[in-house]
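Writing this down once: the sequence line spells out the residues, with the fold written below as integer tokens. This is how one looks:
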Amino acid sequence: YAAQGLFLDGENNKKLRILAISDTHGFHDQFLASDFKDLDMIIFAGDCSNTMSPAINANEVTQFLNWYDDIPVKYKIMIAGNHCTSIEHGLIRPSQYHESIIYLEHESVNIEGINIFGSPYTPRYGTWSFMKNKGKLDPYWQQIPENTDILVTHGPPKGILDLSRNRLDELEFCGDKELLNHVYRVKPKHHIFGHIHNFKDCLNKGSKTVHDIPTQFHNVSCVTDAKFEFGLTSKGIRIEI
């Protein structure tokens, strides 16, 4: 789907109704059919699985893809995340057997006049997938097209809905400064991401704007760190464009 220009004319300039979700980590089956009512599009921002082993991860990703493929919504966008090891290793190609899913791996698609760019890359933390060393992501974010309406990245920009605790239990803004620089350059209408979940006293899930840019930022992660036994603690965020 790289810059393929999938384009379908909208009906009377009707706004697209979108549900943005991320970081289901194997709990996708806790969604109800009613959660997808009256939608034109779902955007999934990565981490449908949880296990590091690519072979086991492939089973988890396949279960998610089968579920995602069956949802009766017209457009279904997906990017990978750092837990999608089987995708990075080439064991799973999300669009190969699931034709209703538009998988973006650092590429764009145009749907009803809306330009969407999706990328899985995040700053390195551990030995997971689609990670680059801190300070090395700028060349990737330079490739975000200027005409992007919806930017979908697995991780957040620095300082925006990205507060967590590090391994020393210290509060830290975990987002990517280089990504933030290019969001300021492109100024998409919406920036959708996950990766940094809610955790203890850190509430990241939600939407916000900042005073000097028109972009609406959305952390749509669906689980809470240290509370995985509860499954989904969010059902994502609905937006219109």
Observations:
- The chain has a mean pLDDT of 92.
